[in-house]
Amino acid sequence: QVQLVESGGGLVQAGGSLRLSCAASGFSVSRNTMGWFRQAPGKEREFVAERNWTTVIRYAASIEGRFTISRDIAKNTFYLQMNSLKPDDTAVYYCAAQQGGKYVYWGQGTQVTVSS
Fold it and tell me: In angstroms, how far is CA 91 from the centroid of its own chain?
């Protein structure tokens, strides 16, 4: 059974940092494309970052240079380090995993709130 569990969200002031974690079970983060998405109130879910099973990494333009996606194969966990946070980054953040080229597995989400 595939399961993704996020943690690390919270309240932070603008300019601060948070690191989100996504612990995976039932599959290997080293063999699948893993990604982060977010959904702000009243808006659609949007792509944030992804890493494929090799070293290819892609970021949304709105967060590039501030966020970093990484993984720990030994812990079967991947991360999103978020620096220089802005109020516009406030959202529920979701981790997700691909199968067959599509994101089919999703975590429950973790709230990130950035105060001005």
Answer: 11
From first CA to last CA, the distance across the chain in angstroms is 40
Spatial CB neighbours of 47, under 8 Å, sequence gap ≥ 6: 35, 37, 60
Interatomic CA distance for residues 95 and 105, integer angstroms: 8
| Cβ atoms 36, 89 nearer than 8 A | no
> What would the pLDDT profile of 69-91 be if each residue is shown by its tens digit?
999 999 999 999 999 999 999 99
* 17/82 Cα distance (integer angstroms): 5
pLDDT for 108 equals: 96
Taking residue 83's Cβ as centre, other Cβ atoms within 10 Å add up to 14
Q: How far apart are CA 101 and CA 21, in angstroms?
A: 22
Q: What share of the chain is helix, strand, coil (3-state, %, to 5)?
A: 5, 55, 40
Q: Is 2 helix (H, G, I), strand (E, B) or coil?
A: coil
Residue 14 to residue 75: CA distance in whole angstroms: 30
